Amino acid sequence: MSQQPATDPSGDPLRVICVAYNPGDELRAFASSLARATTRAYELVIVDNGERTDAVVDLEASGAARVERHRDGNVGYGRAANAGAAGLKASWLVVANPDVVWEPGALDLLVEAGEADPTAGSLGPRVLNPDGTTYPSARALPSLAAGAGHALLHAVWPGNPWTRAYRQAQEAITATEPHAAGWLSGACLLLRRAAFEQVGGFDERYFMFFEDVDLGDRLGQAGWRNVYVPAARVTHLQGVSWKHSPAPMIRAHHASAKRYLFDRWGAWWQAPVRWAIGVGLAVRERVEVALSERERRPAR
């Protein structure tokens, strides 16, 4: 736990919620870099969706983190984050992956941007890939055409116009000042408690993936802005906990994509489009699972 005096009006520290699944050294790196990311009082809450690893045990034993485990086991990202946020009184909370490394002062920059903009319901940093390139973490909400085009084609035709528009990659790379986006990556997200509570937190129907897209959409509909703060920087290692067995996550991604698209375009007259999207997603899921299994086979 941070030993800095609390500065929040509630008197409570900012809460950093880290949803973890069998984490290792990446969680230790997360915790140590977090200590340099802010001068504010904070509490680190690890919601452990997996087995009790040494990294989790050590952080809990040292007092650096409070660990929670849901009685139902692995409940997915959004439901675990909601559980970690329960009872919060501070003005701000962070939801982040354990394979994120904070740059010094990054969390302070996010909070300062939020305090300067009372319309900001969520704020996200510039997310860097391990090679130092910028990941497109601030994106437009998918339209029906863009969502379908991106969902069906991005794996086989990454340069298609729908994926390019969806990601807003060039804007994310070149931006230097805070600006609004349709949604922000849930890999590292600062949330205003009032906004998060107003929309009911994450939609727990999403086990993994698209819960951040859905949250950004609902925040926007409620009158809040999703603000990208490129001066704040983190590095995301991406998928450390499930790279050894990607098939379940591929299936979860496609299930969440289908839920999101069907929720937004559920009118009776859009049924043929939903059918086409469903078929396309099912085909793409099978292809991606097959490719992932082929890559895991030992070379002969």
TrEMBL record:
<dbReference type="InterPro" id="IPR029044">
    <property type="entry name" value="Nucleotide-diphossugar_trans"/>
</dbReference>
<keyword id="KW-0808">Transferase</keyword>
<dbReference type="Pfam" id="PF13641">
    <property type="entry name" value="Glyco_tranf_2_3"/>
</dbReference>
<dbReference type="GO" id="GO:0016740">
    <property type="term" value="F:transferase activity"/>
</dbReference>
<protein>
    <submittedName>
        <fullName>N-acetylglucosaminyl-diphospho-decaprenol L-rhamnosyltransferase</fullName>
    </submittedName>
</protein>
